[in-house]
Design a protein that fits this description.
Helix content is about 45%, strand content about 10%. By secondary structure, it is of the alpha/beta class. It has one domain: Alpha-Beta Barrel (TIM Barrel), CATH 3.20.20. The radius of gyration is 19 Å and the shape is globular. The structure holds 5'-deoxyadenosine (5AD) and FE2/S2 (inorganic) cluster (FES). Its cofactor is [2Fe-2S] cluster; [4Fe-4S] cluster. Keywords: 4Fe-4S, Iron, Iron-sulfur, Metal-binding, S-adenosyl-L-methionine. GO terms for molecular function: 4 iron, 4 sulfur cluster binding; metal ion binding; transferase activity.
Amino acid sequence: MKQLVDKLYETGNLSPEEYKELIDNRNPEIAEYLFEKARNVRIENYGYDVYIRGLIEFTNYCRNDCFYCGIRKSNIKAERYRLTKEQILECCDTGYELGFRTFVLQGGEDEYFTDDKIVDIIRSIKVRYPDCAVTLSIGERSYESYKAFFDAGADRYLLRHETADYGHYRKLHPRSLSFENRMQCLFNLKEIGYQVGCGFMVGSPFQTTDCLVEDLLFIKKLNPHMVGIGPFIPHHATPFADKQAGTLELTLFLLGIIRLMLPDVLLPATTALGTIHPKGREMGILAGANVVMPNLSPKSVRKKYMLYDNKICTGDEAAECISCMRRRMESIGYRITVSRGDHKSIQQ
Ligand code: 5AD
Ligand code: FES
């Protein structure tokens, strides 16, 4: 088993059979061996720096109905909200003061936010903060829309592929969503010139080791700048309410594998990871992650952006997110930096 970790470390790749063997036969000793290698690779590329992204959840309206997601359109109990451009800019003002140099505009697929509105928001942020990166995370749109956002100044785009296995994709989504279109979107984003992030949930219902192997092979093929993975966590008002959550242990193991596959990838220790374990994000960093995404949304809406149950950073403590995060990272010997935190391939 150690030889497989060594091979992954040396070549950045394994065969499908080897990935499967590594995942299925993992144990605490192998995991520690993997994490040590992953940390070394991460430190070679990014030192002890942890990049921060200010997450602005600007709408929870969504036209989609993904079976796992708490803001799916069939959840009529979700209290819907939209932020105005002014509110979004206020989030950026607060964030800039706190040292954020990347803002992530994340939302459901909300038709109210037409291309023109999104373009206007991107331009306004870029005029006010030309030294900041803007990341979009607003789902599937046409090539032309993506191009318009990029031309308006958007730098990065996050679109989790969710699963690279066609059959599995069908089990997580209603018929109205197409696997092919999602994949096409990711390749379009890359072609346009974005720094692109894909990703998936660990332990989502019906996921098998073969699905995970497909995910890893897809990630290798897409060669994204960012990969977002976190455990699946059930939401009580969805069809998957009674499904098991993904585990901390497998999520950490996959973070380690992804770090060795893509040595300079931007890899967040996600909020979902922090939700299933109080020290989940710290453990994520120690398994090879190098990004955290504290919430910058106004306090009044944070409880409404509930993708899954018990999401952290939504209560009274939320205003302290950044100082909390700084302490957390320092407690494990890492430091949050004030920088855009671009992928190494495009840093000056
Ligand atoms: N548990 C964990 N992650 C979820 N997401 C959506 N619903 C859940 C859930 N129940 C993730 C999806 C999506 C991202 C914004 O949040 O992967 O792409
Ligand atoms: Fe959000 Fe600690 S990081 S409260």
